[in-house]
Write a structure and sequence with these properties.
GO molecular function: methyltransferase activity
Order of helices and strands: HHHEHEHEEHEHHEE
Shape: globular
Strand content: 15-25%
Pfam family, one: Methyltransf_25
Structural class: alpha/beta
CATH topology of the largest domain: Rossmann fold
Distance between the termini: 47 Å
Number of helices: 8
Protein name: Methyltransferase family protein
InterPro entries: Methyltransf_25, SAM-dependent_MTases_sf
Helix content: 25-40%
CATH architecture of the largest domain: 3-Layer(aba) Sandwich
Largest sheet: 7 strands, mixed
Number of domains: 2
Radius of gyration: 17 Å
Keywords: Methyltransferase, Transferase
Length: about 240
């Protein structure tokens, strides 16, 4: 649909009627040719915002997919970098693109690490978690970080109600809710379930000290506020 190398409408339909894991296994070989991959502009803006806070030792990409986040971790981390995902297909693509990184298949709601990393990043993952699942993710990332470690991820400002994007995202989420109400297995993918205030509250409850920085390179809304912010969640304790 999106390019000659991208998935067909039929392939997308099969993916959408599968579970999240199976759907991404199917989509993995063509995922990087879809709009679902995190854009280079967001990766570059996040890297620019994190650079003054580094360098870091070991880094982890949570819900790494095909490994786009390695573009951020590689120049910032002096030690080993690790990607974590539950899709075997996505990890295979990531391993092929970045053979020098470490790749771990795991449920991100039960991360198998303890005080192993100094920086954790995530791109485009929160929409695949229900709000009730966020505390488990954030608690696992907190455990995986060393004291003083940083968890960073971008979060976009909601489009105004007058914007076509507002209604497009609302329509998509409503369609997914109907699909999940009448079809099993569920495919969890929503765009409006992780507002900044709710994410901040969950991070704080997990023990993080939370700040944000605007990603100015991604532009501003009509009211002057940034279109996108980088959430910086610092694990408490002395590095």
């Amino acid at each position: 649909m999106f390019s000659p190398q991208g998935p067909s409408l039929r392939e997308l339909a099969i993916q959408a009627l599968s579970s999240v894991e199976r759907g991404y296994d199917l989509l993995a070989p063509k995922f990087d040719y879809t709009p679902f991959r995190t854009p280079e502009s967001i990766l570059d803006a996040a890297a620019d915002a994190l650079r003054p806070l580094g360098p870091f030792a070991r880094g982890m990409d949570v819900c790494c997919g095909t490994g786009a986040g390695m573009r951020v971790l590689q120049p910032l981390c002096k030690g080993r970098i690790t990607g974590v995902d539950f899709s075997t297909g996505m990890l295979a693509q990531a391993r092929s693109a970045h053979p020098d990184a470490e790749w771990v298949r795991a449920d991100v709601l039960a991360l198998p690490f303890a005080e192993a990393f100094d920086l954790a990043v995530s791109f485009g993952a929160l929409g695949h978690l229900l709000p009730a699942e966020r505390p488990a993710l954030f608690a696992g990332v907190y455990r995986a970080l060393r004291p003083g470690g940083l968890f960073a991820f971008p979060i976009g400002a909601p489009p105004p109600i007058t914007s076509g994007w507002y209604w497009a995202l609302l329509g998509f989420d409503l369609t997914m809710r109907v699909r999940n109400a009448v079809w099993r297995p569920r495919f969890v993918m929503y765009y409006r379930t992780y507002p900044l205030h709710a994410v901040r509250n969950d991070l704080t409850a997990a023990g993080f000290i939370v700040t944000t920085v605007p990603l100015a390179a991604l532009g501003r809304r009509e009211d002057g506020s940034p279109r996108c912010r980088l959430v910086l969640a610092r694990r408490t304790g002395t590095p």
